Automatic annotation (TrEMBL):
InterPro entries: UCP014677. It comes from Longibaculum muris. It comes from the Bacteria. This is SIR2-like protein.
């Protein structure tokens, strides 16, 4: 092909949907593949080096209508659950996941979900690539279909609405924009995960309905497949069901709409070619294949094709208009004036999108203190720094006048009314008298040693707070805080009160040190 990757994306009719597989989980979180994950679960059950091989052997002598891996998973799950209920020593779950087991969740799926959640820490060398994905998602990605369980998209595409499992997709009114469809389940709902033989049987039984639901998206949007092998059964099964709903002419049209991203660590730059999938009834899908090792190449190309307004706003608008059409009643976000006057021509009708109030700081009134604290670490509020600081004194009134702003502050913002009252001038002002008194009883020397010796999250945070300013390495603290938000993007809402209090204190410490470091570098 003579087209460049940019020209290829530009030639698409509209912005694409991404169809994402486990390759992205392995790339960004270094998580294991399917077999690797099953081996982890077997190791929790039996340390014998041949334990997993024994399950493979047993599965090979049994009927495998849904493939060998689901059969292996079923055999492991049966043994694992029996041992889990009898032997408390193999239990590793926190209170949230234990509660899910109490409500009927499989211990195997709960332990697997907890393990993956704990291991879901972004590879530091790929942070820029993920930031790029986050940025282009605002106007250049219509939505995500994924077979992955992890919470990558909940964390880094947090403005997208997430639907978990087939049931959610089949019985929800999808808007087809700024949405994530997790068709194989999610770590947040372990029982929804599709991994064993029974799960695949149920998935296959409903696959035709799912295909019909997704068909509109496949016809309306270009689809970019990422994180899969070209032979992946997940892709073939879904495409097979889609193709059954289409005529030969419609199938041929998919050639211009489907792009397959193949990862090759050895390649420099990229190569563009073709790949084909053959199905029953002599139907065949031919799609463009791009081979690369650096995903930022495809992200940059996608980012050049933009919608005029953010996709999250389009989803809200479609959702509200849908509700209004059904009920004929104005919604909280849509107010309808009289427009049935015959004197109003069709080309005179105007839809205005905005807030119900005219404010200079658009949208900032909706920011919560939890979002503010998270932003100090993750920097995911896309507002101008001056606007954020101008709003800070107002937001601080909700939390007794305390809000971290040092890392955002610069001398040019000193005239913002009330900002001086939020600025922390002394490190010890962050530390309570109780923390100060307890320091001598906790002679830790740095963050790394604390994390090696202590596993409880609250005790970790308290001991870090006991450190003196000169004992805290800013990078270590930043990595620690980011890991907590990457493991649970809603930790400031979902965790217990003591954890939330300790985490906010550490964020204030981090904010102070980062602000001090910023001032010194200037």
């Amino acid at each position: 092909m003579s087209k460049t990757i940019e020209q290829l994306i530009e030639s698409l009719d509209t912005i694409p949907f991404l169809f994402v597989g486990s390759g992205l989980s392995r790339r960004y979180y270094n998580l294991p593949d399917w077999i690797g994950l099953l081996k982890v679960m077997v190791d929790k059950l039996n340390k014998d080096s041949f334990a997993f091989r024994s399950y493979e052997d047993r599965a090979s002598f049994e009927s495998n209508p849904y493939g060998i891996n689901p059969k292996i998973a079923s055999l492991i799950e049966e043994d694992f659950n029996k041992e889990w209920f009898q032997n408390p020593a193999i239990r590793n779950l926190d209170e949230t996941y234990l509660e899910k087991v109490e409500k009927g969740c499989s211990p195997f799926k709960a332990e697997m979900s907890y393990y993956l959640k704990q291991k879901s820490v972004l590879c530091s060398n790929l942070k820029d690539e993920v930031t790029l994905l986050n940025n282009i998602a605002k106007k250049s990605i219509a939505g995500i279909i994924t077979t992955n369980y992890d919470l990558f998209f909940e964390t880094y595409l947090s403005e997208y609405k997430v639907y978990i499992g087939q049931q959610a997709l089949l019985f929800s009114q999808l808007q087809g924009i700024a949405e994530v469809y997790k068709i194989h389940g999610s770590l947040n709902d372990p029982q929804s995960i599709v991994i064993n033989e029974k799960d695949y049987k149920e998935f296959k039984e409903k696959r035709e309905y799912l295909a019909a639901k997704l068909l509109t998206i496949f016809m309306e949007y270009p689809i970019i497949f990422m994180g899969y092998y070209i032979s992946d059964s997940n892709i073939r099964d879904i495409l097979s069901s889609i193709v059954k709903c289409m005529s030969n002419e419609q199938v041929k049209l998919l050639k211009e709409k489907f792009i397959f991203i193949e990862y090759d660590s050895e390649i420099e730059g990229y190569e563009i070619g073709e790949s084909s999938f053959a199905f029953e009834d002599d139907k065949m899908i031919t799609m463009t294949k791009i081979t690369l090792s650096d995903y930022s190449l495809i992200y940059n190309a996608i980012g050049k094709k933009k919608m005029k307004i953010p996709v999250r706003l389009l989803r809200v608008l479609k959702d509200e208009l849908y509700l209004f059409t059904l009920s004929n009643e104005p919604t909280k976000n849509i107010k309808v004036a009289t427009i049935d006057d015959d004197r109003v021509a069709n080309d005179e009708l105007v839809i205005s999108i905005g807030t119900t109030e005219t404010v200079n700081l658009n949208g900032l009134k909706g920011i919560s203190t939890d979002q503010w604290y998270r932003n100090i670490v993750m920097q995911d509020l896309k507002y101008d720094t001056k606007d954020l600081l101008a709003y800070a004194p107002t937001l601080a009134k909700q939390v007794s006048g305390i809000l971290p702003i040092n890392s955002l502050y610069e001398d040019k913002f000193k005239d913002i009314e009330g900002i001086d009252k939020l600025f922390v001038n002394d490190f010890e002002d962050i530390i309570s008298k109780t923390i100060e008194r307890e320091r001598r009883r906790h002679p830790q020397v740095d963050i790394q040693s604390i994390l090696k010796e202590i596993t409880d999250i609250d005790k970790q945070m308290l001991n870090i707070a006991y450190l003196k300013k000169e004992q805290i390495n800013l990078n270590d603290l930043e990595n620690y805080l980011k890991s907590k938000f990457e493991q649970d993007s809603e930790i400031l809402k979902s965790s217990k009160q003591s954890t939330r209090t300790n985490l906010r204190r550490l964020i204030r410490i981090y904010d102070y040190l980062k602000g001090e470091n910023k001032k010194a570098s200037n």
